[in-house]
Design brief:
The protein is mostly beta strands. It has one domain: Nucleic acid-binding proteins (OB fold (Dihydrolipoamide Acetyltransferase, E2P), Beta Barrel). It has 3 helices and 7 strands. The protein has helices spanning 66-73, 138-146, 155-160, and strands at residues 8-14, 19-22, 28-41, 47-59, 79-92, 98-111, 123-125. The N and C termini lie far apart (41 Å).
Length: 168
Amino acid sequence: MSRSLNKVMLIGNLGSDPEVRSTTGGNRVATFSLATTRNWNSPNGEKQEKTEWHRCVVWNAKGTGLADVVEKFCKKGDRLYVEGRIEYRQWQDKENQTRYSTEINVRELVMLGGGRGGSGGGDFDGESAGRSRAPATAGAKSGAAATGGAEFEDFPGALQEADDDLPF
C-alpha cells in the first residue's frame, strides 16, 4: 500500500489578531498570519535573518470549537505552535485573474506564551474538542480571565483533588 504524508509543524508569532467569521452554513473559521524567522551567518560572518509568513486557517470542525479558542485566547504577538496540513487553492478574482493561495489547515494548536508577557500555556487540538491537555500556567490563568475565559478559573483547583487513579 502506498502512503503519503502532508504534515506541517510551525512555531512562530501572530502578526495580528486572528480574524474570525462564520460561513453561510453556520460554521466558524479563524484565520491568522504566523511569522517564522530563521537566523544564520553569511560566509563572511554577517548575521542574516529571514522571516516567512504563513497563512493559517482554523475551523470548528466536528464541533471542536478550536476557532472559538483562537478567537478568545490568541492575540497579536502571541507565540504559537501549530500543526496541520498544507493546502494550495486557486480561484478567479473579480477581474477573472487566476489567484493562488497557500494555507496551513491547523489541526492542533499550542499557546506557548512569551509573546505578550508570558500569557498562553494551554494546549488545544481539534481531536480533544478544544480542551486543555496540559496544566495551565499562572500566566494562562490570568490571560484567560482577562479575556473572559472564566471556564479556566477552576482548573488549578482540579489539580488539588486527591481523587485520582494514577498508579504512581
